[in-house]
Amino acid sequence: MPAGRRFVNVVLRCVSVRVRYRTHLGYQEPTYYFSNNALMYYAIAKTIEGVISTNRVTANELATGIRQAGEGMLLESIVYAHVFLSAGEHEAVFKYSDLDLREIDVVAIDRVAKTLRLVEVKCKSRISPVHVFHEEAGKLYDEEILKNIGVDDTYDIARVLVYQGGNAVLRNSKGDLLLANIADFLLFQSDIPGFTEKVRQGEGLS
Description:
Blueprint: E1 15-18, E2 21-23, E3 26-28, E4 31-34, H1 37-53, H2 59-85, E5 91-97, E6 103-110, E7 115-121, H3 143-149, E8 156-163, E9 168-170, E10 177-181, H4 182-188, H5 192-200
Parallel strand pairs: 7-8, 8-10
Antiparallel strand pairs: 1-4, 2-3, 5-6, 6-7, 9-10
Helix pairs in contact: 1-2
């Protein structure tokens, strides 16, 4: 840390959740405090689910959900940082979100070269080729989102779903989808066309 410079973390918002469960030592009732948005929303959602179903949210369920939310957020941050730091001279990198609560984790657009990379990150090790275009990758093919971003048919669009499984290219009439192992994506994300071709040729990457 540079001399004379101080850094202070300030929590502006937080939510607390108290969970009551039984152990061999008797009833425990710890209180969890969340200041991160992703974890806050998860904690609130689970608490509401528990109230509606009249079932208590168990400590194990809450801990598992917190871990999964944290892992997903961490993976998204890592992928975004790599794309942002390696962006080209004319390339803008941002996360897309709109009033309809649609989000795309990473958008990288070069309006000079007319290229667009759409990247969705999932904390999963398996993706169903049958359902992926309607579920995990559905937003990457949303025409209204593309219009909002400001692209048309003249753009070369690369769609990538990053996860913890193997690499594959799935055919689609609106454009192929690259399923990319996160480790390989971080190594080759600056050259998606070359990466995609390697996957098509069946080259071992992971």
